[in-house]
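User
Here is a favour to ask of a fellow structure person. I am asking you to supply a protein in sequence and structure-token form. Please set it down just below, with no commentary around it:

Assistant
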Amino acid sequence: MDLRDFFKRIREIEATIAEADVLVVSHGTPDGGKPGVMTETPRDIAARLIAEGRAHLATPDETTTHHAKVRVAIEQAERAALADRVQVALVSDADLEGLKQRTKSKKS
């Protein structure tokens, strides 16, 4: 393939992509590329992957599904981080009785 034609094709593909960042889905390749891997990438890199035959643009359904999975993963990570921040204080029986006595005397 002529290099000029290759880069012309990349520019043509890039011109058809409206968004700055797009979701691409990989194809299986002989050098070990895994099919079906979704990646959010800048327009120029997406155009190059498409021109090389390594990926295609994700369909709107694939994009919606991917963003939903990412949203769920973020929520789970936030919950896990929140659970790590929960503080637990150990109180002995004697200290607990002392606290109960103080609160009873304050109420009286």
